[in-house]
Each structure stands twice: as C-alpha cells, then as structure tokens.
Design goal:
- The protein is of the alpha/beta class.
- It has two domains: about 170 residues, FAD/NAD(P)-binding domain; about 140 residues, FAD/NAD(P)-binding domain (3-Layer(bba) Sandwich), CATH 3.50.50.60.
- The protein contains nine helices and 24 strands.
- A five-stranded parallel sheet has the order 5-2-1-9-20, with helices on one face.
- Strand 23 and strand 24 form a beta hairpin.
Length: about 425
Amino acid sequence: MKNLVILGAGSAGTMMANHLSKRFRKNDWTITVVDIHGKHYYQPGFLFLPFGIYGEEDCFKSKTNYLPKSVQYIQTGIVEIKANDRKVVLVGGKNLNYDILIIATGARIAPEEVEGMKGTEWHKSVFDFYTFEGAKNLRNKLRDWEGGKLVVHITEMPIKCPVAPLEFAFLADWHFQKKGMRDKVEIKYVTPMDGAFTKPKAASKLGHFLEDKNINLVPDFAIAKVDNENKKIISWDNKEVDFDLLVTVPTNMGDDVIMRSGLGDDLNFVPTNKHTLQSEEYEDIFVIGDATNVPTSKAGSVAHFEAEILTDNILRYIDGEPLLESFDGHANCFVETGFNKAMLIDFNYETEPLQGVFPFKGIGPMKLLEENRVNHWAKLGFRWVYWNMLMKGKKILFITPQMQLAGKELPTKELEEEKFVAV
C-alpha cells in the first residue's frame, strides 16, 4: 500500500483529494490530508463582509464536510517536510511517510514584513481584509466611520486575487454613496505597480474606472513603513500618503513550513514547473494553488484549473508516463465594480485579457472586459458553484482548464496568425 499525502485542506488541497479519490484504484493507494484548521474559509467572501453584503456565516464551513470519506484527515500542525527522506514531521513528533506529496499550503499575509504595519493601529485604523478576522473587524469599523481619508494599499506582488484591492476600492465608493457620505470620503488607491493592474490591457480599463469614480491612483509606491502616530504610509523614496483609515494588502508569503523545510524562495513559495506543476527539485513532490511560484494569479480559479491537470499528471507519474506540460496559466476573475455590476477577465501566461463573451462564442452570456449586471450575479452565484461543485471535484461543463480563444476578440496580428496556421 502506497501513500499520497496532501498538505493543506483549503481550496486546492480539497479539490485534489476529491479528484484523486475518484480515480485511484482501490487498495493500491491511501490518501492522507493534513491541515491545522477545522474551518474552510470561502476567501472571496472576505471582500463582501466589510460592506455587509455577506454575513460571517457566509464565509466558512467545516473542512470535513468536503473531504471524501475514503481520505484520512489529520488535523494538526506541520513541523517540517523532510523531502530527502520522503516524510512529513507533524506536531507531536509523528512522522508521516509518503510516496507522493502534494503541497497545497496556500499563502498568508505577513504584515510584520513592513515596519509599523502591525503596530498600535492594527485593526484600529489599519486593517486587512485578506483574513476573516481582518474583514470582520473592518466591517465593525465601517459601520460607525464618519469619513475622512481612506487609503486602499498594496504592499508588493504577488498577492492572492490581484483584483481584490481594486474591487474593495470600487465597493467602498458604492458603499459610501449608498450611505450618503461619499463627499466626506477621499479614496486613494496606492500600488507598487505603474498602473491599476498587472495586465496592461485590463489596467487601462480599470484605470478608467478609478477616474470615473473619483478614486485617486498613486502608482510606483514602494512602502517602507507605516507611521502609526501621524497616520501616514511612507515609501522608500520618502513619498508620504496620509490616512484616516488604511486598508492594506500586506506582503503575501507561503506557509512557514516551507521555509523551515528549505523548499521555498524568498517569499516561501515553492519553485514549481509552470506547465506540469511538479516541484523543480523533487520529482515526487507536486505543488498547487497559492503555494506555487508559477507566474499566474493566486486565485481560486487557477487552483481549479490546476487541479484537473495535476490529477492527470499524478496518475501519469504513478504509471511511469511522461508528464503533460498542459497548464497554461489559465485564470479568470470577476471584478466587482459596484452598483450591482462586475467585469470578467480571462487570461493565461501568454494572452492578456481580451474583449468578447464567455463561455460560449456568440452567446456568452457573460461579457469580457465590460461591466454589467450578469457578471455581478454570476460572481455572487459562484459561491454555490464553489461549495457544491469545485470543492467536491466536479467539473464545470464547457469550462476547460486551458484558456479558450472562442468568443474572444483577437488583435489583428493574432487573427492573421490564426488564419496562417489554419491554411
């Protein structure tokens, strides 16, 4: 009997447990999942919690509800991965041997990486919304906040769900308009990038949204410290931005166990083949979701697409077959723009977000790079899809792991290349 061990029972780990349990031959392999937490958080819900769109109960369920019964679940902490010995050391000293290891330990915020960020004003006038506690405390703050300078800030890239800070700024604009106090709130969007988003075409579109909503963009801001006493953030080149309320996305890092195990880069993300999802260093280790260093979004949609491809590659690895280099960095994200509207973007390693319709050519019904109500309701409806399909390892019909060009408006050069290949 051989053992496959999955570290992490968040989105990526849970999907892998369900996919593999359905396709493994019985009595050949056991699957063991390890995670220290009992609650499975629906992280997209953290965006809505501060504005009262979601309640606390909408943001989590028990992890055991979504793991297959055939899987052994161990709820404990992980001390170290000893990759050369093929074992995982758990809290309490127990050793868990493996034949194949899947690292799905995710990413965490690290406010301690910036001087003063987790200082005297933490969760008083300085908040995150990337954790359940942060989003909940920010909700409580916004209920009675009387206005002033609101700064929405990104520390550095990469971060989980790169569009989430923009969505927060757009929803804040809507929130304060509904409360009749938008004129009392100055909103600034402060980013280390030179534009609103990592992808230039989407950045241009999203930048116009910032202008239209009277949200001031402050680009190229590399934060050095948070001055809690004077309520300002200061960059390494001594630029200053004052705030009354700072909503920040701290540095995102991989789990500390990756650092303790010597398996990660400077941010504790595991070097991973971006097409096969196999560890760059160990052939019996595979990595998925936010734990990887692959150059695409750290988002639930990416983990979903990766899970389907990684399942096939693990089965090929077991059978001694070459791995498929088939993951193309596919990501799609709904971008809430406020007023019950949202925009949808779909892209991969090579192709930027394009205009068009998704998922059906000529039909849609969702439009790309264009805000509308259909996209908004699709984003809200995704919570049902997440719990009832993705976490249970069910495929979404007509949505493939690889990005499809059908329905998208290609630039002229790409259209010519498509015709040339067809001939």
